[in-house]
Amino acid sequence: MSKQQPFLCDKPYEFVPLLEKCEKEKYSSHNLVEKDTYSGKLKLEILVESPLHIGSRQQDYDEYGSVIKKQMRRNGCIIVPGSSLKGVVRSIAEAVSYSCAVKAPYQELERLLPPLNNTACKNINKEGLCITCSIFGMAGRKDSYRGKVQFEEFVMKSGSTVYEKLPPLKSPSCDKVCYFAGTEKEGERQKTGFLGRKFYGTGREAQIESNEKSRYEMIAPGSVLEGEVIFQNLRKEEGKVLFYALGIGHHFTMKLGYGKPLGYGETKVILKEVETLAKWYPSQRKLSVDMVKNWAEEYRSDSPAEIKKALQEFERIMGIKDHAKGSGVTDSN
C-alpha cells in the first residue's frame, strides 16, 4: 500500500498505514448491564509455533556459568501473562479499524498524521471513544476508561521448553526515524509523512551478526497454553474487531514475546468455548462459538473498502508460515 516502503530497506518490520479517519461513540458504563450487548468469556488455547519467550526477572546458570534468562512462571507453572496477549491483540485491532491516532512522543507528529485522525482519545465525556479504546480501555491525563475486556493468564497445559541463544536486540525506540517517510533536502532528511503502525512480519526476519549471545528458556513449538478473555457489554461491531484481532479464523500469524524480529514467538489462538451471561440477564444476547467465528469472517468480508485495504496489508505482512522455526535443546515439563 505504502509507496514509502523502499525506505525500510532490510529492516525486519513493515507498516500498516493509518486509516484516514477515526469514528467515536459514547462509552459504556461498567456498573450497568447494557441491553442487546454481549457479556461472558472466551475459553482459548495458544498453540506455540516457534519458540516463545516471555521474560521474567529470574535467571539461572548453566554448567559453564553462562546466564540463562528464564521463562515467566506463576506458582511453578509456565505462563503467558494476559497483558502480553492483550497488547498484541490491541495493536492489531488499532491497525485494522477506525481507531484513534497513535500516541507518539514527537512534537511534529500531529502535522504528519491524517487531518481527520491526528489525535488520541482523551475527552471521553465530550467526544466518546474510538472502537479500540472502547474495547481495550485508555488512560489520559484527565480521563481514563477500563475497557470491556480482561485477558487472564494463559497457563501451559502441555509441551516443553527449549534453550535458544539470541543476540542482543535494541529497543524499537532506538530506531525512531523508521516511523517517518522522508526526502533528502540540502543534505538533511526532511520528514514528510508517518508510515503507520509497525509489525514484525513473517517474511522479513532480521539478520544480526553478534558474538555476544544470551541463552533464553523458551516455550517449545507444539506446546499449548490455556486461558480466558472476559468481556462485558460488547457491541456486535466491537466483537467483530476483537475476534478478528484475536486471530479467530487463522488468517495471519500472531507474534508474542521476545525475539519477534528473529522469527520467534509465532503463535496461533484457538477458540474452544464461549460462555455468556444471557441466561442470567435476559436483556443480554447469546453468543456461540459459530457466531464468534462468523463475526471474524464478516469483519474481513463486509468492512468498508479502506478497512479492507488495511486488512489485506496486515495479512500480507503477517502471513501464515508453513513451518515453525527450529528449536534448540529440549527440556520436558
Sequence-ordered SSE layout with sheet pairings:
Blueprint: E1 14-16, E2 24-25, E3 38-48, E4 55-61, E5 67-71, E6 73-74, E7 77-80, H1 82-95, H2 109-112, H3 124-127, E8 129-130, H4 131-136, E9 138-139, E10 144-145, E11 149-151, E12 154-158, E13 160-166, E14 180-185, E15 188-194, E16 197-199, E17 214-219, E18 224-234, H5 236-245, E19 254-255, E20 266-276, H6 289-302, H7 305-317, E21 329-332
Parallel strand pairs: 5-17
Antiparallel strand pairs: 1-16, 2-8, 3-18, 3-20, 4-5, 6-7, 7-12, 9-10, 11-18, 12-18, 13-17, 13-21, 14-15, 19-20
What does this structure look like?
The protein is of the alpha+beta class and 333 residues long. It is 20% helix and 32% strand. It contains seven helices and 21 strands. It has helices at residues 82-95, 109-112, 124-127, 131-136, 236-245, 289-302, 305-317; strands spanning 14-16, 24-25, 38-48, 55-61, 67-71, 73-74, 77-80, 129-130, 138-139, 144-145, 149-151, 154-158, 160-166, 180-185, 188-194, 197-199, 214-219, 224-234, 254-255, 266-276, 329-332. The strands form six sheets. Strands 3, 6, 7, 11, 12, 18, 19 and 20 form an eight-stranded antiparallel beta sheet that branches. Strands 4-5-17-13-21 form a five-stranded mixed beta sheet, with no helix packed on it. Strand 14 (180-185) and strand 15 form a beta hairpin. Helix 1 packs across helix 5. The protein is globular and about 60 Å long.
